[in-house]
Design goal:
Order of helices and strands: HEHHEEEEHHEHEHEHH
Shape: elongated
Distance between the termini: 60 Å
Number of domains: 2
CATH topology of the largest domain: Outer membrane efflux proteins (OEP)
Number of helices: 9
Number of strands: 8
Strand order of the largest sheet: 2-5-7-8
Helix content: 55-70%
CATH architecture of the largest domain: Up-down Bundle
Radius of gyration: 41 Å
Largest sheet: 4 strands, antiparallel
Structural class: alpha+beta
């Protein structure tokens, strides 16, 4: 019997151990590192970089020799007719036009042609633009990573705050449960009234609802974090970081300048693309030079099977040359296009001032919000500690018979309100910290 019990307990322990092994544990930094390699948005922007690399290689390929093979076998079942003067046809009446069929019933043409670009300004500018486009894709990838770090950090902090909130709600629930039992016992003993029990019961019921809502909010916040990380919602996730006021002491207020913001770097790349777009239109004024060569054979016969007689029915031909195309006048089309593209470049230049002012405003705003949120959090922390002390003293007075039940209920309500205010302030401070670090370009 004992062996069976021990065996069962051992098996249960192994199952629990196996389940525990499946729980994923992550600190905030580990969560960020994981998201940077598994978040779907980052994976997609990484694919965009690969696409951009393919565009560069595609542009390079257009400047390499282009070789094509052609084969044409035809059954000319209705030969075209040409009209010749009758003088060219023996025995035909003079002064008339005679219809004559030219060609053979079956014909063949096989050739291999090659072209090599010697000079094409559009090609070289396009190649440079493709490389710049790849650079833009890389910067967009960095921007996506910053956005993911922001989202993961906020989601991680949200889970921590919700878990701490739930933990204190459960303590409050236990405290009210004890108070309710004590009040009921005092009522039975004649030391309390029915209204005293009802007051505590109302608080107890409200706390139970708050507890259920906290469980739901925690579940939602955990699902959001898993979504940002790129893991399955069904996976178990344990957060190893703990909320500590010391986490607000590591913020560096040093502004690294506009270059630290990826948005500014992206705008610089957009300016380069706009300049290359103008350059591309300008080089269309230049001539294009190509080398070309063709080698092949033709055949003509009245019998279709003879087309496959390579030795006797096919005749070789070949040619090679240089081809140059010189644009002369296009109705001022390129000139008009260049004027449009210059206007677009001016818009990019104007966006520099707009972005710089926006960054300056954002930094000032986020720094102020962060500093104020930390101050408010510290005040709310002090209020929570004071309200806790008030509640404990009020409860002791009530238990000693020198205080009222209503005072205990009010003190308890004030304590819970102070807790709520602190958690809201704590959450706002954490979010403000993330926003401020992003504004000065130090989030990634």
């Amino acid at each position: 019997m004992y062996k069976k019990i021990i065996s069962t307990l051992s098996l249960s322990f192994l199952v629990l151990f196996a389940i525990a092994q499946d729980v994923r544990q992550m600190s905030l930094q580990e969560a960020i590192d994981y998201a940077l390699t598994h978040n779907q948005n980052i994976l997609n922007t990484q694919l965009d970089i690969e696409v951009a690399e393919g565009v560069v290689k595609e542009n390079i390929a257009t400047g390499l020799p282009q070789i094509n093979a052609n084969l044409d076998l035809a059954n000319n079942f209705a030969l075209p007719v040409s009209f010749l003067p009758s003088e060219f046809i023996p025995g035909a009446p003079p002064g008339e036009q005679v219809a004559v069929e030219f060609g053979t019933r079956f014909s063949g043409n096989a050739s291999v042609g090659a072209t090599q670009m010697v000079f094409d300004g559009v090609f070289f500018v396009g190649l440079e633009a493709a490389k710049t486009y790849k650079e833009l894709s890389t910067k967009n990838h960095i921007k996506t990573k910053i956005d993911v770090v922001e989202a993961v950090s906020k989601a991680y902090y949200t889970v921590l705050v919700n878990r701490l909130t739930l933990e204190l709600i459960e303590k409050n629930f236990g405290r009210l449960d004890t108070l309710l039992q004590e009040t009921q016992q005092m009522y039975k003993s004649g030391f309390a009234e029915k209204i005293d029990v009802n007051r505590v019961q109302v608080q107890f019921n409200n706390m139970r609802v708050n507890q259920e809502n906290s469980y739901k909010m925690l579940s939602i916040s955990e699902s959001l974090l898993k979504f940002q990380l790129g893991i399955k919602i069904s996976e178990e996730l344990e957060l190893t970081d703990k909320l500590d006021l010391d986490m607000f002491s590591d913020v560096d207020y040093t502004d690294a300048g506009y270059q630290s913001r990826v948005e500014y770097s992206i705008l610089q790349t957009q300016e380069q693309l706009a300049l290359l777009d103008i350059k591309r239109t300008k080089v269309e004024y230049l001539p294009k030079v190509d080398l070309y060569a063709t080698l092949g054979a033709i055949a003509g016969t009245g019998v279709g099977a003879n087309l496959f007689n390579i030795g006797n029915e096919w005749f070789d031909f070949g040619l090679a040359g240089v081809r140059m195309s010189v644009p002369i006048f296009d109705g001022l089309r390129k000139h008009r296009v260049i004027q449009q593209k210059k206007a677009k470049l001016e818009i990019v230049h104007n966006n520099y001032d707009l972005l710089e002012n926006s960054i300056n405003l954002e930094i000032d705003q986020k720094q102020t919000e962060y500093e104020n949120s930390v101050k408010i959090m510290n005040v709310q922390l002090e209020n929570m500690e004071l309200s806790k002390e008030v509640y404990e003293i009020t409860k002791e007075k009530y238990q000693a018979g020198v205080g009222s039940n209503l005072e205990v209920i009010n003190a308890d309500a004030d304590y819970k309100e102070a807790q709520t205010n602190f958690f809201v302030a704590l959450y706002n401070a954490l979010i403000a910290k993330v926003d401020y670090k992003k504004s000065i370009g130090k989030l990634l």
